[in-house]
Amino acid sequence: MTSTTGTAQHPDVAEISDLTEGLLSPSRAQDVRRHVDDCELCADVQLSLEEIRGLLGTLPGPQRMPADIVGRIDAALAAEALLDSTAPGASSDTAHGVSRETAAGDVSRETTQAPARPAAGRPAGRARGTTGPGRSSQRMPRRRAVWSAVLGAAALGLGALLVQNLPADGNDADHPNAAKAQTPQFAGTPLETQVDALLDPPKPVRSDKNAPSVDVQEKTPFAVQTVAVPACVQQGTGRSDAPLAAKQGSYEGKQAFLLLLPHTSDPKQVQAYVVDAACVKTAPAGKGELLLTHGYPRG
Amino acid sequence: MDEVTLRDADDQELLAQHVGGDPDAFGELVRRHRDRLWAVALRTLGDREEAADAVQDALVSAYRAAHTFRGQSAVTTWLHRITVNACLDRARKAASRKTSPVDDTDRLDQLLEPHESAEAPAERQDLHRELLAALRTLPAEQRAALVLVDMQGYPVAEAARVLDVPTGTVKSRCARGRARLLPLLTHLRSGTGGNEDLGRGRNRRPGTSVPPATEPRDAGPNGPAAVKGGGGRA
Questions:
Q1: Which one of B57, B150, B189 has the shortest CB-CB distance to A102?
Q2: Which residue windows are transmembrane per the record (chain A) (predicted)?
């Protein structure tokens, strides 16, 4: 947008603005400065630009991140921690979670630094950008988006739990410790689907347009099973109402149960509990240790 | 790692501890930087929910990518960069769809909270709203530069590191952004009765009350001319 105007004409507003920032070539700067000095009109433009700068600097604005958003982000990061502890080394496989949230798929596109990697590391067959799970519609209701975002992250952790007690061949489901269950073939499973299913099992066919789309690459959607919850594990939640869903897995190297219960106060949320399973052997009548609990919005 | 040790650690140490498996280190980092990241995101996107999504995306991304941090920039710069990039992605998406005008005033008011008290002169509040509305008409890159430099007061060099562009580019984006905002200020100044004009402004859809200013050459000099009633082109 360099000016084509001669010294006899008014310079662009953009040029006057550039002058202030020292962006003009020395000769052009001299011309424009000379013009502004002599031209009341352009001097006024220059003054107004300074005024805008000052206004921007004094605009009232947020001092603190609001508590609800702090809580949301803490929950998302806690879900990440859960993932880390259950599936060490899986970070590259789970990176698509970020990309799914930023439709361009590349949070750090302009940098040469590593944060660009998560998108690059997206597993083959994962849809990019706006076709990602739960992101197909721009008009997706807000709560749905939160559900996808936060619980999507939670689901990654849940996926890790699921992986460990659902062997690849579908048999042998009684052996939650099977190490082979951590084989990478499960890593790319659309985890939101699992969570949706876990919360809403009696819906074999998706008709809800707002629901996260099922990845076409997915050939083996998990048959969701809710395991029986030992009494001490239920005790660990401090609640007596039946879980919406429960899964067995491991957390931070410990055998644990993941339970989803209705939120005590907010019907729009579910409360997730991770309870140490050790009590099943050591103190079946006692109270299992609560390892983690978090509320997540439900769609 | 106990809390005292966490508080004493610098950002880079915290990130290293996080990579090393400390479950609390990243949380401490977030506590330190979230308010500034929030301000940048909210002002860049102009929408509370979008900003919340962007910051969340960015922090989750940083959490996962922490092991790739090379220490070539400060941790705070790195966090800002990831956040601003997440915002720019969202801003571009938002630009491709038109938001409903219904909640615009509310959304602008959200951006002025909590410090725009009721005691502030109505005229000034309107001016702030108009300014925010006009900011949203700018290209995202210009807006991000203005947010970092003019609004949040980051040095140009730091903004350049955050945006990963040369300092000259930051200056240029700021200069062009201010130039595009000029018609706004001209509009406000040209109001004869002040309050009357600003009152009308409030009832209009904010986004449309400001000329798009794609042609600063026309919009700029003519505005003041209208006020002063003279000084045509030579």
A1: B57
A2: 145-163
| φ/ψ (deg, to 5) at A246 | -150, 150
C-alpha span between B232 and B123 (Å, rounded)? 30
Dihedrals phi, psi of A296, to nearest 5 degrees = -130, 140
A55 interface with B at CB cutoff 8 Å: yes
What own/partner pairs with CB < 8 Å and gap ≥ 24 does B209-215 have? Answer: B209/B130, B209/B133, B210/B130, B210/B133, B210/B134, B210/B137, B210/B183, B210/B184, B211/B183, B211/B187, B212/B137, B213/B137, B213/B179, B213/B180, B213/B181, B213/B182, B213/B183
What stretch of H or E contains B182?
Answer: helix B167-189
**How many residues are present in chain B?**
234
Alpha-carbon gap, residue A247 to A205, rounded angstroms: 22
Spell out the residues 6+ positions from residue B141 whose beta carbon is closer than 8 angstroms to its own: B88, B163, B173
Q: H or E segment at B169?
A: helix B167-189
What is the model's pTM? 0.54
For tokens 């904010």, what's the residue?
B206
Give the total residue count for chain A.
299
Handedness of CA B216, B219, B223, B224 (dihedral sign): positive
Residues of chain A found within 8 Å of residue B220, distances taken between Cβ atoms: 12-13, 16, 45
Using CA atoms, how far apart are residues A223 and A216, in angstroms rounded to an integer?
Answer: 17
Of A22, A69, A115, which has the smallest distance from its Cβ to B82's Cβ?
A115
Per-residue pLDDT of chain B (234 residues; tens, 9 = 90+): 566 678 888 999 999 999 998 889 999 999 999 999 999 999 999 889 999 999 999 999 999 999 999 888 899 999 999 999 999 999 888 777 655 444 466 666 666 665 555 566 777 788 888 888 889 889 999 999 999 999 999 999 999 999 999 999 999 999 999 999 988 766 665 543 333 333 333 333 333 333 334 433 333 334 333 333 333 343
